[in-house]
């Protein structure tokens, strides 16, 4: 075959002339000889080589990978396997972005739209970094052996990757979680709970002196029954909880209410619920409403 000019080769490959010139100048083929008129002439070997380059580019391979293939430093199988892995990751990301962006139409504020947009651009590693930075910022300089520091390790627990086609509740959980960790007051509250936990003594770690399970059961019963804090029925429950036949001394009631308030926050409990949705954990019944009822009941008198 006589040599082809760059225009003829471009037509044969179905690519612009500038593309052939770029590939040639990038060293993907040996520098072609030139005609008497100064035109590049590509022989059969160059045509076959650039035809392979075009095919690999259409498959999405970058020039560095193609150059290694042509130099026989890597096999086609190795490059193809790596490219399949990269494509799978890109497909997962695109599916997540599609699902997230569907939420833009339902966002009611500019801030919600910004959060959706930001999350749509984040990789799994970047999403984990958002949480890690929140935890590091919130629990900075707390002793590693502090009893309350365990909350920090738990708060880092995110799934390695969202499902390829995340459920709407998982997407909603991500959006809510992102808003939560961006709120400085939430971080301050979580730190306050950890610091208070660090101050507990081994002899009396919670200073409540009551059965937490029993307290939850009685508190939930009170909520279901519409028992108002401060009512005679509420006072009977207080006496039953404190197990002294009376309503408890004012000091004990105040101390217990304050202690419960220190370690009770609906947003912190919500954080664990959101992690549960993302990780596929079994849902749990919220404990905060019952504890808040007890706080109000203990302070009512």
As a whole number of angstroms, the C-alpha radius of gyration is 32 Å
State the distance separating the first and last CA atoms: 103 Å
Number of strands: 0
Please state the average pLDDT score: 80
Regions with pLDDT < 50 over 5+ consecutive residues?
Answer: 199-205
Helix content: 55-70%
- Can you summarize the main beta sheet? none
- Broad shape: rod-shaped
Estimated structural class: mainly alpha
**Integer tally of domains:** 3
Beta-strand percentage range? under 5%
Count of alpha and pi helical runs? 15
Instruction: List SSEs in N-to-C order.
Output: HHHHHHHHHHHHHHH
Explain how this protein is built:
This protein has 301 residues and is mainly alpha-helical. It folds into three domains: 6-74, Orthogonal Bundle (Multidrug-efflux Transporter Regulator, Chain: A, Domain 2); 90-198, no CATH class; 212-299, no CATH class. Helices cover 64% and strands 0% of the residues. The protein is built from 15 helices and no strands. It has helices spanning 6-13, 17-25, 44-58, 63-70, 76-102, 110-121, 124-138, 150-155, 168-181, 184-198, 212-225, 232-242, 250-262, 266-279, 288-299. The longest helix is centred in the first third of the chain and has 27 residues, at 76-102. The chain is rod-shaped. Mean pLDDT is 80; it is low at 199-205.
């Amino acid at each position: 075959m006589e040599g082809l000019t760059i225009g003829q080769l471009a037509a044969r490959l179905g690519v612009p002339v500038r593309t052939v010139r770029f590939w040639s100048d990038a060293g993907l083929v040996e520098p072609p000889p030139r005609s008497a008129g100064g035109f590049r002439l590509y022989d059969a070997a160059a045509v076959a080589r650039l035809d392979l380059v075009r095919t690999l580019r259409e498959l999405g391979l970058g020039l560095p990978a193609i150059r290694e293939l042509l130099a026989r430093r890597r096999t086609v199988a190795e490059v193809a396997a790596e490219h399949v892995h990269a494509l799978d990751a890109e497909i997962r990301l695109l599916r997540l972005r599609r699902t997230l962006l569907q939420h833009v139409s339902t966002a009611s504020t500019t801030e919600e739209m910004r959060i959706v947009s930001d999350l749509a651009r984040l990789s799994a590693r970047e999403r984990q970094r958002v949480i890690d930075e929140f935890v590091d910022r919130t629990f900075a300089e707390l002793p590693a052996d502090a009893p309350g520091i365990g909350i920090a390790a738990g708060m880092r627990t995110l799934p390695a990757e969202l499902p390829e086609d995340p459920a709407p509740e998982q997407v909603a959980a991500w959006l809510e979680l992102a808003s939560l960790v961006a709120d400085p007051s939430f971080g301050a509250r979580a730190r306050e709970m950890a610091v208070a936990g660090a101050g507990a003594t081994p002899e009396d770690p919670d200073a409540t002196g009551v059965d937490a399970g029993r307290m939850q059961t009685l508190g939930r019963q009170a909520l279901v029954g519409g028992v108002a804090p401060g009512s005679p029925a509420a006072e009977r429950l207080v006496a039953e909880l404190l197990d002294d036949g009376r309503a408890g001394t004012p000091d004990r009631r105040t101390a217990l209410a304050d202690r419960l308030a220190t370690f009770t926050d609906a947003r912190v409990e919500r954080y664990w619920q959101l992690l549960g949705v993302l990780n596929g954990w079994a849902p749990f019944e919220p404990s905060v409403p019952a504890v808040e009822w007890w706080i109000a009941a203990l302070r009512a008198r």
